[in-house]
Structure formats: C-alpha cells, structure tokens
Q: What sequence folds into this?
C-alpha cells in the first residue's frame, strides 16, 4: 500500500461508521442543541428532512449536539424527542435513528484533529475558491482568501464545533445536509474539512429564513417561537405539521390544507424557495380552525378536555356538566380557532354568574335595554324551552319595540353570557335552562336600575 492509500485508509478509520443506509442510500440528520424550547424553525427543518428520508426510503438520524456543557440540560433532550413525536417524527419508525450524542464521539473528533495536523491537512490554500453546490441556492463560490484561518481544535485538543460537526456527519454517513440558511456561511469550512478527511461532501440544501410580520427573522426574545407553546395553546399537531411544511415550500397544485402523507409524497427539495418564509400566525390559526372543524364531535370533545378543568377552567369541578357541554360543543367547534378558546366560549354555562366584561356591558346596555329585558323576560317565562320558541319570543319583543333582532339580542346576550359575542344565542339559552336564564335577566335589570338611580 502506498503512502497516499495508507493516509486515506487511516482517514477512513477515523471517520468510519456502522450507521445503516436506507434502500435508496439517503441519510439525513437533524442536529439540535439541548439548550432551550423547540423552535418552530427547527421543527420545519426536521419535517423537511423527515419527508425527504421517508419519501426515498432512507434514514433520518437525530443527533443531539450537546458539547456546550454549561447550557445543556437533560430535560431539553427529552423535550426535543417529545416535540419531534408531537409532529409525527416517531423514534419507533423504521426511518428513525438515534438519538446520537455529539459528546459520545469526542474521541473520534480529537483523533481527526490530530490526524489533520499530522498530515498537514489542517491548512488550506488561500488562493482560488471553495464552491458549494446547494440544491436550493445553486452554485455559490466562497473565495478562499475571504475564509478566515479558522480553528478546528482548542489548546487542550478538544475539537470545536465546525470539526465535530463534519466528523459526526461523515461517521454517520450523512448524504444530505438540509438545514437553515443561517448555516450557509459555515458550509465552505465544513466542505473543506470533509475533503481534508478524505470524504466526498454531502448534498447541501439551505432552507429560507423564517420571518415575522415585520419581515424580521423570528427571535425567541421577541416572537412566540416555541413549538411547545403552540401545542399548549391548543393548536392541533396535524395543523402545525401541515403549516410548517408550507414554510418555504408548497405543492405544485396549490392545494395547501391536506394530510401529511400527501405532503410527504409531493415534497421536492428542489422546489423549496430561496425567499424568506413568513410565519403568519393568522394563517396558522385558520389552518387550525379547519382541522378542528374536520374532527368528529366526539374527537372535538375529547380534544377539549384539557381546557375544561383546572388550571384553565374558572369554574369549580362540580359545576361542570358533561351533557350540557356536549349540547353546545358542536356550536363551539365551528367557531374556535384554537382549542384553548373553548374555556371562554362556555364558561358562562358553568359559572354561578356570567363573566363580567364592562366593555360588553357598556356596548349592549344602551337606553331602552331595560324595556327589552322586561319584555323578553315576560315572553320566556312560560315559553317552550327550545331554541326555536325562544327566538320567536325575542323577535316578538323586538318588533314591539321597533328594533331589529340584532339590536334586541345584545342586552339579552350580555345578561345571560356576559359578552357581546359568543355561541348562537338561542341554543345557548336553551342549554343554560329556564331558571338560570331568567335569574340572569333579572340580575341584569336590577343592575341597570341601580346604575340609573346612582346617576
């Protein structure tokens, strides 16, 4: 064996791996640091990698880049695994590998740095350029004289991130590196290291930056960026997956709301845009509302359970009536955008008194409200307690006072539910029951009289 062959064999030993290849030979990785909550940008990157791996019957490797000992926390590792599972990236799937830990390959990384130094491959020519071929961004040239003489190992011999990252990718036989645009500037350094270690560089693909409404890069100090926060607010995982898959990419047929299996089959890395991706919270809420409406009534009721008890619900546990909730759940399902909205949609049903909202009271209790309250109270006292009959009684009272139905409804809605907007009034009143409804109308009339007397 000649000297070059020996050196290459040695490099292969240093960066060798037993990681499995998929049937298509593709291996991608998702490499987060366990230093905080799971960023929606990371979730998007993970989903794109997952779709690519599964579509081509390859492998998705989860690698925890845990070399920052001061900031790493074990619970964040658990959080990463849980967050991935929430968006459908399950450790039990045949495409999934890991988690691997960067710290566990410190010996190989150190050996690589020593070998590079011994072979004088730790230095490169400062003339010419390093060319990075990126699936999304095309051919990019980085003049070598513009790349600083970067460090690959510290004084104690421990490798820095740029080398550790390259060594781990080579050891894990990664074929495609799909990650955020912010890593593009590091790519020529990593490509040089791949080549110096005797490995062919991977396919590079740098995803567009995600921006907020002001077209600023999403920031955890300014924006809501944690996937866990969206899940806690009541965004359905399926809706989040669907929306995140569309940040920088879209199906060629233009149909956006569709099952993940279809998105996975249609995904093409070469179709990802170079332009910034706008994280539109209103659009996400609209997607979520569509997914909520697609649930069966039973599924919706089950999904709401978290927000129908402590610590979210303001009513005492014994005041909640599952049958009453079920009677209005279908009405709420068509109106809530996120599941956490269910609490304020139905709280008036389970509280002893309706919530107090001074703005709603001031808007609805205009001059003439006393007369409407009295007329409706009289009409409903002996009415059939059905939504249809209750509507008829209020329509008659409105006509008697020369008001349109919407105007006549306002004081009744606020008296009964505490707010000017909410579920359909007559179905709500039917669910609340005659005794409680009439008592609330009486209480509102008394409050109006007291305020009038105090003027």
A:
């Amino acid at each position: 064996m000649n000297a070059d062959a020996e050196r290459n064999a040695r490099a292969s030993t240093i960066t060798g791996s037993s990681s499995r290849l998929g049937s298509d030979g593709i291996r991608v990785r998702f490499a987060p640091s366990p230093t905080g909550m799971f960023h929606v940008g990371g979730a998007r990157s993970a989903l794109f990698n997952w779709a690519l791996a599964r579509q081509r019957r390859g492998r998705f490797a989860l690698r925890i880049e845990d070399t920052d000992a001061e900031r790493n926390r074990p619970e964040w590792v658990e959080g990463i695994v849980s967050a991935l599972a929430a968006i459908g990236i399950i450790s039990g799937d045949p495409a999934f590998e890991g988690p691997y830990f960067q710290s566990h390959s410190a010996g190989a990384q150190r050996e690589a740095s020593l070998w590079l130094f011994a072979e004088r491959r730790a230095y490169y020519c400062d003339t010419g350029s390093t060319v990075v071929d990126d699936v999304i961004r095309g051919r990019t040239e980085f003049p070598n004289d513009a790349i600083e003489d970067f460090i690959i190992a510290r004084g104690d011999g421990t490798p820095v991130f740029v080398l550790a990252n390259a060594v781990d990718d080579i050891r894990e036989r990664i074929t495609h590196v799909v990650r955020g645009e912010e890593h593009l500037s590091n790519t020529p350094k990593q490509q040089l290291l791949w080549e110096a270690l005797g490995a062919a560089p991977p396919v590079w693909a740098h995803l567009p930056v995600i921006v907020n409404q002001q077209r600023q890069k999403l920031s955890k100090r300014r924006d809501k960026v944690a996937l866990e926060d969206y899940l806690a607010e009541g965004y359905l995982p399926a809706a989040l997956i669907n929306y995140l898959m569309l940040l920088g990419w879209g199906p060629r047929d233009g149909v956006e709301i569709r099952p993940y299996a279809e998105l996975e089959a249609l995904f093409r890395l070469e179709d990802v845009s170079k332009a910034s991706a706008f994280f539109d919270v209103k659009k996400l809420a609209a997607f979520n509302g569509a997914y909520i409406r697609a649930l069966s009534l039973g599924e919706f009721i089950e999904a709401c359970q978290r927000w129908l008890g402590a610590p979210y619900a303001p009513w005492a546990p014994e005041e909640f009536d599952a049958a009453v909730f079920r009677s209005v759940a279908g009405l709420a399902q068509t109106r809530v955008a996120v599941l956490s909205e269910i609490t304020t949609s139905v709280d008036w049903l389970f509280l002893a008194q309706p919530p107090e909202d001074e703005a709603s009271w001031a808007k609805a209790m205009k001059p003439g409200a006393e007369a409407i309250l009295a007329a409706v109270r009289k009409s409903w006292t002996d009415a059939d307690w059905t939504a249809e009959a209750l509507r008829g009684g209020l329509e008659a009272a409105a006509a008697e006072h020369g008001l349109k139905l919407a105007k006549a409804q306002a004081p009744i809605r606020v008296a009964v539910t505490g707010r000017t907007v909410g579920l359909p009034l007559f179905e709500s009143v039917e669910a609340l029951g005659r005794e409680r409804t009439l008592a609330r109308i009486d209480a509102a009339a008394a409050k109006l009289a007291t305020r009038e007397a105090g003027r």
